Amino acid sequence: MNRRLLLVSNSTLHGSGYLDHCQQHISNFFGKDVKKVLFVPYALHDRDTYTRTARDKFKTLGYEVESIHEAKDPVDAVRRAEGIFIGGGNTFRLLKSLYDNKVVAEIRKRVLEDGVPYMGSSAGTNVATISISTTNDMPIVYPPSFSAIGLVPFNINPHYLDPDPSSRHMGVTAVLMQFCVQGLREGSMLLVEGNKATLLGTTKARLFTRGKPSVEYDPGSDLSFLLTDLN
Amino acid sequence: MNRRLLLVSNSTLHGSGYLDHCQQHISNFFGKDVKKVLFVPYALHDRDTYTRTARDKFKTLGYEVESIHEAKDPVDAVRRAEGIFIGGGNTFRLLKSLYDNKVVAEIRKRVLEDGVPYMGSSAGTNVATISISTTNDMPIVYPPSFSAIGLVPFNINPHYLDPDPSSRHMGVTAVLMQFCVQGLREGSMLLVEGNKATLLGTTKARLFTRGKPSVEYDPGSDLSFLLTDLN
Predict the structure, then answer these.
(1) Which end of chain B is more exposed for a tag (fewer CB within 10 A), N or C?
(2) Does the distance separating the beta carbons of B142 and A142 come in below 8 Å?
(3) How does pLDDT run along chain B (231 residues), one tens digit per residue?
(4) Of B61, B28, B59, which Cα lies nearest the Cα of B200?
(5) What residues does A193 pair with on adjacent strands?
(6) ipTM over 0.90
(7) Distance CA A57, CA B204 (A)
(8) Active-site residue, from B97, B122, B131, B188
(9) In chain A, which among 11-40 make CB contacts under 8 A with chain B?
(10) Do residues A192 and A25 lie in contact, with contact meaning Cβ atoms separated by under 8 Å?
């Protein structure tokens, strides 16, 4: 399997601009061969403005951006894509639009079979996993399923917040324990190349597995076992 | 419409026991005529333990508890109920179980037509509204719809957290603005009697209406306009 994924926890870090904190990783990831990236702005309501933001940023990195919402045929746009970037916003809105536009299976095929590089941020990271069951977003629209694109065999919570030790609200942690979950804190990224997974960025991530204590991993950690354990 | 609702934000306040913070309101609400309350423990996985907790607490207030999960026929249990209490947990699990057991319409009928008093806490407050679209819970199971019991014509976010002014995460507030939402903070309750709604408890609540600035209300405020505006 020659999949290549860059799964980013969030598109902005406090005090910096859009995708600034991961721009070197983006350049390394898409490299020199990709000239144009297909952007998926479905997670936000205002797709035009969102596309302008992404287009401006990717231009500074040397990439053209085509937005899927401007394409006549979204499925065809995926078939033609050299690289894919799905941005953040509301995870339910994003997944519903992916299904409405019938691109879920086509993105999966392009990434897993053809090796098209896939970058996700926040909600775009969430939908890259087996399901959106660990999103923190509100269910503002009703998607036809919670199953997602399924590029990796586990869940990711892209905005994992450490439970406040003084709080009695252990709800989030309790829920996460029901899945094999990678909890990415702000500034975290997961790079997947084939069957190798590496934690990038500046903050630790926490792994939750049902029936086991959770484990912390430092940036740079090899997390490839996440891909093979469940495969 | 002779509906009677007690919609509580959360079942425990820091440092106190289960339903302690609202026990006087519970006694006032169910009164002397109700002898037995139908408890709905669907929001948690361990329904037996949850029922014991609720039964023990209601016993101290002078009420018997029948749990719907112990009834042979859940719909019949709703038909026989003198009073209903739906407890908190995961909102998606709760709503799915309400649909699976075919009690959504029956609870609506009993409360709106027969005047059976309905108490909800947290997820049980969420499902009393038009939809679960403002829950903060994770979508761990897939309900057949996000439409809920519909006892009031607006949404409630039962665990409203004030946005941190130092944070750039305005996501929650932005989403809430899309609905007519009552944001209940910990310790808040909404009492609905027919077409009269009153804010009870110890903390303010915040009202979000699409296209309008949000408004804060003190405990004791008359919020009846919420019921008539959209009816």
Answers:
(1) C
(2) no
(3) 789 999 999 888 877 899 998 999 999 999 999 999 999 999 999 999 999 999 999 999 999 999 999 999 999 999 999 999 999 999 999 999 999 999 999 999 999 999 999 999 999 999 999 999 989 899 999 999 999 999 998 899 887 766 654 444 433 443 444 456 777 777 789 999 999 999 998 888 888 887 788 888 999 999 998 887 543
(4) B28
(5) A4, A196
(6) no
(7) 42
(8) B122
(9) 12, 14
(10) no
